[in-house]
Amino acid sequence: MEIERYHIHVHPLTLNKEFDCDFCNESRKGHKFRCDLCNFQICFGCADILIKYHQHREHIEHSSHRHPLILLENTSNISNAKDCKMCLEKIHGQSYYCCAPCKFYIHKSCGELLEEVKHPFHPHHYLTLQMSGPWWRYHCCACGLKFDKCLRYRCGDCKLDMHPECLSLKPTIKCQGHQHDLLTLLEDMSYKSECRACGHDIKNTFYVRCVPCRLDFHVHCGPAAASLPPTVVHKNHNHPLSLVKDDSTLLECDD
Ligand SMILES: [Zn+2]
Ligand SMILES: [Zn+2]
Ligand SMILES: [Zn+2]
Ligand SMILES: [Zn+2]
Ligand SMILES: [Zn+2]
Ligand SMILES: [Zn+2]
Ligand SMILES: [Zn+2]
Ligand SMILES: [Zn+2]
């Protein structure tokens, strides 16, 4: 609402004007904190939260940003429409680290990813966290799927990439008859590969993979077939799966 000029002041005066808070991105009224030098302004609610967090929370140093970051937890009321600077996905009510002055935000889960890891799938080199490059072109060596986010672990020497989520995959199947003892039971409906033993396609089924050798086998064809444990636990299934021996070897859940 503008009060008519000249009667009170040479410039238009406004009453309780709405403003966009630079932290929660909401249109707000009422008290605000404002920097006149650069037009930075935040609503009272955000300022209150940020001040409390600055006072009571530890700051962390993180390689993704030159300033210390504070952790904001359970703050769905002020986490509107922020993009994580690491994975480039939206932050929807999850906990996140932030540098408020720079409008720099990252998911807590992204901030906690290790920069370098060693994994039994690639035991001789470190895999390092990558955030750039044409990630959509690469396949994860562990699960065989393409990347749908930019974050990945990579061995640059071997040009080998792995999903951060797939770090939790571990070689679980011991096998004689194969040098690595490193087979992993995987299940994927969209991945298509060829069984190195029988030469037929692998699709819509469980399969075992030796990641270091980049070899896939049907469960009943692979070097593991002779030594598959009677039951295995699979990441996509709550119950142990038991091996049923017949013409088409299946892994079945009894429940
Ligand atoms: Zn705000
Ligand atoms: Zn300023
Ligand atoms: Zn993220
Ligand atoms: Zn900053
Ligand atoms: Zn993967
Ligand atoms: Zn390597
Ligand atoms: Zn086969
Ligand atoms: Zn192997």
TrEMBL record:
<dbReference type="Pfam" id="PF03107">
    <property type="entry name" value="C1_2"/>
</dbReference>
<dbReference type="GO" id="GO:0046872">
    <property type="term" value="F:metal ion binding"/>
</dbReference>
<dbReference type="InterPro" id="IPR046349">
    <property type="entry name" value="C1-like_sf"/>
</dbReference>
<dbReference type="InterPro" id="IPR002219">
    <property type="entry name" value="PKC_DAG/PE"/>
</dbReference>
<keyword id="KW-0677">Repeat</keyword>
<keyword id="KW-0862">Zinc</keyword>
<protein>
    <recommendedName>
        <fullName>Phorbol-ester/DAG-type domain-containing protein</fullName>
    </recommendedName>
</protein>
<feature type="domain" description="Phorbol-ester/DAG-type">
    <location>
        <begin position="123"/>
        <end position="175"/>
    </location>
</feature>
<dbReference type="InterPro" id="IPR004146">
    <property type="entry name" value="DC1"/>
</dbReference>
<keyword id="KW-0479">Metal-binding</keyword>
